[in-house]
Amino acid sequence: MSSALANGLAGAGGGLIAQILTYPLQTVNTRQQTERVVKKGLDVGHGTSPSGNQRPGGTLVIKTEGWGGLYSGLKPSLFGTIASQGVYYYFYQVFKNKAESIAAARKVKGLGDGNVGMISWLAVAAMAGCLNVLLTNPMWVLVTRMQTQTQAERNIMERKRDALLKEASENSATASTLLVKLAELESSKPKPYGTLQAAGEVYSEAGIRGFWKGLIPTLIMVCNPSIQFMIYETSLRSLKEKRATNKHGVKQITALEVR
């Protein structure tokens, strides 16, 4: 097995475990960031909607949607994580091997010390990150839509409920009929929202380009892991060189030190 393939599989496996453990927190965070509330009558000081419900948080998600609500969109998210981490670490190792080969060839020619420089590490991480974004952005578009769809449907129901209550208070003659409609609304539940349905909606709204929505800012954010890996590789090389000169101590780099 090539080093690039092994690195890709390791990255995919690690990403899978991390995603399962942290997904509920991601769901709550996404809901809070994308919450769409009715501005009219919004009590900003108390953080409630016109119908008196609190803004979404972990407890509210569990109360209204059950524990499964915290894992809404998990399946495509896991697939996206496996693909994203696998793609990134695969190409990162490919570009890393190439950079190390170039550095070694330059040393033979008397240019440099055979080590990959910080700028080269930055370029390696940036190229791997850009390829990862281009290939996996459609998956994350679907994941975000699936995470927020249930919340959007709940907000629509709140608007309908507020309208019915207002109409009932203003027109007592039809109050009983409206209360029946209100009871029916309260008993209704959001329809299941699957990956294919999400993909169909994205395509119908924006065509094939809709799957790469937010591409530019995501590409800009590639600088974050690029800088991280640049510092990581440079620090790791320094640590290895220091350990190599230690005649009595442990020369192997531990997992904790790598972290």
Structural features, described:
Pfam families: Mito_carr. It is a multi-pass membrane protein. It is found in: Membrane. The protein is an all-alpha fold and 259 residues long. The protein has a single domain, classed as Mitochondrial carrier fold (Alpha/alpha barrel), CATH 1.50.40. Helices cover 71% and strands 0% of the residues. It contains 9 helices and no strands. The chain has helices at residues 3-34, 58-65, 74-108, 118-170, 175-187, 195-206, 215-220, 223-244, 255-258. The longest helix is centred in the middle third of the chain and has 53 residues, at 118-170. The protein starts with a helix and ends with a helix.
CATH class categorisation: Mainly Alpha
Task: Provide a count of the helices.
Answer: 9
Helical fraction equals: over 70%
Low-confidence stretches: 36-56
Distance between the termini: 25 Å
Major sheet summary line = none
